[in-house]
Amino acid sequence: MVTTTLGTPLADQAIRDVNFFNGRLLTGGDLSREQAARRLADRRVAQAVGPGVAWGLEVSALAGGPANNVQVMAGLGVTDSGLVLNLSGDTVVQLVPPPAQAQTALGDGGFSPCGGLAGATSVAADGLYLLTLAPLSTPEGWAPVLALDDVNKRCSTDAYIEAAQLRLLPITGINLTGTDAASVARLRNQLAYTYFDAERVAAAHAGPGHPPSPGSTVTDGRTPCDLPLAVVYIRFNAVVFIDNGAVRRRIAPRPASVPWADWVGDTVTALGEAQMLQFQEHLLATPSLQNAAATALLDWLPPAGFLRAGTPLASLKTFLGARAPEQEMPLAAADAPALLADALRADAVKLSAAAAGSRYRAWRIGGTPAGALLFARDRRNVLAAEQVWLDGGRAGRPQVTDVQTALDQLLAGSCLHVVLHKGSDLAGTLRAIGPNDATICFEAGRYELESPLVIENAGRIRVQGHGATLVNRAGECALRILACEAADVSDIAFEGQGVGQGKGQLGLGLHGALTVVDTPRVSIDGVQARCAGASALGAACIVVVVRDAAVNKQPRASFTVSGCDMQVGKGQQGLLCVNGDVLALRGNQIAAADGKTALQRGIVVAGRRAGTVQIENNIVRDVVRGIAVGLSEGPEEEGQPLLAGRVHVERNRVELQLKEVTTGGRYGIFIGNAGSVVAHANHVVLVGGDVQKLQPQAMRLAGVYGPQIVVRDNYFAGTWRGIALEPKFQPLKQVWAFQCNVGRGLGAEILYVSPAYARLVIDEHNVKVIEIAPPAPQ
C-alpha cells in the first residue's frame, strides 16, 4: 500500500511515452519502448472491456475423425491479462500427438509480460484437462544491422509474430470415480459447478455487501495469459466428453464494486448464461439425461433451461421430481427471451437441498404441445402474487403476509371466487379449480373459442357474466360442466357456431351451447343460448344430462331451467333434459335463430327415469315438434315399463311451422309413459304448413299411463286434430278426463281416443269450433 499526498503523480504503473523531438538520436530501444507503451494501453482497454470470449472459439469433437482430435472454431477472445487473442480459422487439434511432435514456446517477444509459456506436450494419462488459448511469440526473418554498438552482428531478427497457441493443462483436485454413463454425467456436472463456484455464490447471497470469500477451486495450471475454452475428459487416448460451458465465458467487465461482485454487473449475468448453456450442451450430448430423475445423475441444475421441443409435462415432472410445477403455462415465443434473461440472474439449484425452497415453473413456447419446454426457478418475482404484501391481521389471517398464500388458503376452503376477462388463460384457470366450490364471473365481452371451456369434477359451481358471451367458433358447445356436485348458471350467453357428428366422446346424443353432464343439482336462469343450423339434427341450445351409466351412481337429480332465451338454428333443438328426477322448466322462450326457418324440436324431456316434471309458461315458436315428455320404452325390473312420475304441462304456447316439412311426426305437445298427467291451459297453433297433407296434432298422448290423466282448458288452432290418446296399457282404476278443450279451425276431431280405450275416457265440454265465412257485403 502506498501513502501519498494530493496532487502527487502516481507513476509506478504509468505508461511511459517516448518523447520524440527533432535532432534526437533514435535507437531500437526507443522504438521498442514506444511499442511496449502502445501494447500496455491496448491491454488496459481490453481489461476494461473484460476477459472472455468475444465470439467463436467453441470446441467440439471432430466428426468422423480420430477419437483424440478436437476442432476449435475461429474466434476472438481476451485473457485476464488483457491480451487479445485471435484464431483466424477453424483448427483441428491433436490432443494426444506422438511425442516427437511435442512443442514448446520459442520466447516472449511482443507478448511480454506473459513470458515464455510452455507449449502442450503429450497427454501422459487419463484424466481431466483444460484446453486454453494462449499467446506465443516467434521470430521471423532477418534484417541487416548498422553496428552503432560495440557488437559484431551483421543481421538480427526482422519481426516477432504475435501468434496464439492451444495448451492442454491437467486438472487436479477432482475425484474420478466410476466410468459408467451415470458417473460420467455426475462428474461433468460436478466439475462445471465447481468452476461456476456455485457454493460460494450461494453463500455470498446470504450476506450482501461483504467481500467475496474464497470458494472451491480446482488446480489447472492456467496463467492470466490463458483464455479457457473447454474442459476435456480423456480415457484410453479417446475423448469422453468436451464441456465448453464449464469454463467458457462471454466477455464481461469486472464489477466496479468488489463487495457487491456477486450481486451486480455483467459477470453475474454471464455466469447465469454459462450455467444454462452448459446444461443445454450436456443435454445435447446426452439426450437420455432428461428421461430420468435429475437427482440420479446431477448435483446441480441451472436457474433456467430448456427441454427438447415436444417434451410432455409428465417428463419434466419426472426430471424435476418434487421441484416440478403442477402445470405448464403457455408463453408467446416473442416473450420467451425476456423471461429467460430475467430468470438467469437467480442462483443455480443444488439438488441435495430441500425442494420447497427451489421449485421450478414451466412454460410451453408457443402454447402448443410441439413447442419447447422452458423451466425456470420459481423466483417469486414482483409480478407474482406471492410477492404482493398482504396485511394478514386485517384480513383475518394473522400468519399470512403474501397474496399467494392467502389464495392457497382460500382455495383449500369452502369457496373460491374467480373473475375472468378477455386475455385470461380461461381453460387453465378453470382446470385449476380442482375439487373446490367456486363462483366464476366472466367480465362483459365476447370470448371467441376454438374448443369448449370445461369445468370438471368440481364442487358447487356458480357461473355468471352479465354482458359476456362465450362463442365456440368450431363446434356446438361453448361451456361444458361435467361431474360437479352442483351447477348454477345465470345471466350469461353461449353460442355454438358448429354442429356435432354423433354422440362424441361423452356419449351424448346432442351437445348444447351450454352442456351440463352428470351433475345432480342444476339451476340455469336468465341464460341466452344459440346454436347453428344444419341439414340434420346435431346441436341444441341447452343440454342437461345424467348419462345412463351414471344414473344409479348419482343422487336424485334436480334440473331447473327458467327465464332462458334460446335461438335455435335450422333443424336443431332448443332444450334437452335427460334422466332428471325433479324437473322445472319455466318461462323459457325458444324460437328460430333467423326468425323464419323451422327448428326440429323445442323442449324434450327423456331418458330412463323422471320423477316430477313441470313444464310451465314456455313459449316455443317456429317448431316441428314442440314439447315432448317421453321416457324410453323397454323392460325394467319385474317387466314394468319405464314411466315418468307426475307430469304437469301448463300454460305453454307452441307455434308449429311446417312450411318445409314433408315427413316425420308433427305435434305441439307429446306426453308418453307417465304415471300421472296434467295438461292444462296450453295453446297450440299452426302458423304455416299443409294441414291436410301433414296432419299435425296439437297434443298427442301415446304409451303407458297410470290412473290419472287430466287434459283441460287447452286451446288449439289450425291443426289437423286437437288431442290424440293412444294408450298401450289399462290400469285397474283410472280417471282419464278430457274437459273444456277448444279447437278452432281443425281439420279433424277435437279428441281422438283409440277405440279399445274410448269407454275409459271422460269426454266433457270439448268443443270444435266450426269456422263460418262472414256473409258477403250487400
Jot down its keywords:
single chain, 778 residues, mainly beta, 22-stranded parallel beta sheet, 13-stranded parallel beta sheet, 9 helices, rod-shaped
User: Cα distance, first to last residue?
Assistant: 134 Å
As a whole number of angstroms, the C-alpha radius of gyration is: 43 Å
Q: Biggest sheet, in brief? A: 22 strands, parallel
Q: Specify the overall morphology.
A: rod-shaped
The average pLDDT is 85
SS class: mainly beta
Number of helices: 9
Helix content: 10-25%
**Total beta strands:** 51
- List unreliable stretches of 5+ residues: 99-111, 381-386, 633-639
Percentage of residues in strands? 35-45%
Briefly summarize what is shown:
With about 775 residues, the protein is mainly beta.
Structure description:
This protein is mainly β and 778 residues long. The protein is built from 9 helices and 51 strands. The chain has a 22-stranded parallel sheet that branches. The protein has a 13-stranded parallel sheet with strand order 17-18-21-24-27-30-33-36-38-41-44-47-50, with no helix packed on it. A hairpin with a 7-residue loop joins strand 15 (360-365) and strand 16. Helix 2 packs antiparallel against helix 4. It is rod-shaped.
Topology:
Blueprint: H1 28-49, E1 52-56, E2 59-61, E3 69-72, E4 75-78, E5 84-87, E6 91-94, E7 127-144, E8 155-170, H2 181-195, H3 198-204, E9 227-235, E10 238-243, H4 266-285, E11 300-301, E12 304-307, H5 313-320, E13 329-331, H6 336-343, E14 349-350, E15 360-365, E16 373-377, H7 403-411, E17 417-420, H8 426-431, E18 438-442, E19 445-449, E20 453-456, E21 460-464, E22 468-472, E23 479-482, E24 486-490, E25 493-496, E26 512-517, E27 521-525, E28 528-531, E29 540-545, E30 558-562, E31 565-568, E32 573-578, E33 582-586, E34 589-592, E35 599-606, E36 610-616, E37 619-630, E38 644-650, E39 653-657, E40 667-672, E41 674-680, E42 683-688, H9 691-694, E43 697-703, E44 705-712, E45 715-717, E46 721-727, E47 735-739, E48 742-744, E49 751-753, E50 761-764, E51 767-769
Parallel strand pairs: 13-15, 17-18, 18-21, 19-22, 20-23, 21-24, 22-25, 23-26, 24-27, 25-28, 26-29, 27-30, 28-31, 29-32, 30-33, 31-34, 32-35, 33-36, 34-37, 35-37, 36-38, 37-39, 37-40, 38-41, 39-42, 40-43, 41-44, 42-45, 43-46, 44-47, 45-48, 46-49, 47-50, 48-51
Antiparallel strand pairs: 1-4, 2-3, 3-6, 4-5, 7-8, 7-9, 9-10, 11-14, 12-16, 15-16
